[in-house]
Amino acid sequence: xxxxxxxxxxxxxxxxxxxxxxxxxxxxxxRATARRLGEExxxxxxxxxxxxxxxxxxxxxxxxxxxAMKVLxxxxxxxxxxxxxxxxxxxxxxxxxxxNNVGGTIWAQPYHKxxxxxxxxxxxxxxxxxxxxxxxxLPIMMEQKSGSIVNLxxxxxxxxxxxxxxxxxxGIFALTKVLSMEYxxxxxxxxxxxxxxxxxxxxxxxxxxxxxxxxxxEEVGEEAAMYRRQMGEDIRNQQAIKRSGLPEExxxxxxxxxxxxxxFITGQVINCSGGQS
Length: 277
Known about the structure:
Blueprint: E1 19-23, H1 28-39, E2 43-48, H2 51-63, E3 68-72, H3 78-92, E4 97-100, H4 116-126, H5 128-144, E5 147-152, H6 163-183, E6 188-195, E7 209-211, E8 214-215, H7 221-237, H8 247-258, E9 269-272
Parallel strand pairs: 1-2, 1-4, 2-3, 4-5, 5-6, 6-9
Antiparallel strand pairs: 7-8
Helix pairs in contact: 1-8, 3-5, 4-6, 5-6
């Protein structure tokens, strides 16, 4: 199995016998993270709302000898997040690692262009899934007196044309800091990986899909294209390494924070962004 799921892995089994949930693991950074944690010996729970993409990830893991479970879940509500945790505890009896990967901007435009509905949808996608999953998993990890939570942040809080998304990611930074202080005495670590622009070549679900069967209006016209170009230029101008990141590069950072190699690290935001700060 070594190297088949993630050739970047050095062969260590830092997550051997750890039950690891990765939300949004049907594609992109989530899928790469599931593969990396599986490569490192973890038991992987593939949590996604889209059956096609979740099934693909689970099949890849099982074909490479990884114990894997699929849970179709919409963690945009506390009920959905609790159902996910309940299913995992029923199956495995514990949760060692939670990677809160669900999120992603929908629109790119100056703030005055947003409608109230768009603002709410951006927050519902980006902030609430991480908040609800943390709320649902904490009692389980408190009882175990152990656990590692790795959240996904973003460089957007200092960028252009994504204010509601940026506010959501800024909220995740705050959540990380506060939870690390409140729950460190229970042996629970909480950290965030903050990617820069990352290429997602394996996308099944469009970033414009708000929920199953519901799409945001397609962006059309020169103005929308201009805003996206400006956003991309802003990201690149802040980078020392002038390229898009790879999902596998984010996954490597997540795996480190999830593992006991980071056993004395909590409350931190680790940039994996090609030099953005």
